[in-house]
Specification:
alpha+beta; Pnp Oxidase, Chain A; 7-stranded antiparallel sheet; 7 strands
């Protein structure tokens, strides 16, 4: 029986499962290092290209300052159904460590911001929200994965 409380090689996600979940899931948690060494951790919308994560961050976000100084980052995407439906409902997670690259390319900013907004809120609401989001100024963070740690507690042995 697969573990319901820890990651094992048997319950690791395949590359195809990772891709499917990252393309369909909206919310992640992004961790970067503050100058004092503490972690800065926030929820964030993201776009998955099949090989890199792309994030559209507002100009004043602390993560931008952190990543300019230290590009190491961790992004976590998960769902835990056990909280509402009990142990048998299971949970899954994708933890990715990588290196971030910042870009102010206007075409990339518009594309990634649009894709992230549509994925998170649908096309109609994305159109309404795009103008105020773009007005604050954006930077794109591209995260190139270096290490994956994944699990699905409902995978069979």
């Amino acid at each position: 029986m697969s573990s319901k409380s820890t990651a094992t090689p048997e319950n690791a996600l395949t590359p195809e499962e990772i891709d499917t979940r990252l393309r369909s899931t909206t919310l992640a948690r992004l961790a970067s290092f503050r100058a004092d060494g503490m972690i800065h951790l926030t929820p964030i919308w993201f776009d998955w290209t099949g090989s890199v994560f792309r994030l559209s961050l507002g100009a004043g976000r602390v993560h931008l300052k952190n990543l300019a100084a230290d590009p190491r980052v961790t992004i976590l995407v998960d769902e835990d159904y056990r909280l509402e439906h009990g142990l048998a409902a299971g949970a899954w997670a994708i933890e990715c460590r990588g290196l971030a690259e910042l870009s102010n390319d206007e075409r990339l900013i518009r594309d990634v911001t649009h894709r992230s907004l549509v994925k998170a809120m649908g096309a109609a609401d994305a159109e309404l929200y795009a103008e105020p989001v773009m007005a604050e100024g954006r930077t794109i963070v591209t995260i190139t994965p270096t290490t994956w740690h994944t699990w699905d507690y409902n995978k069979v042995d």
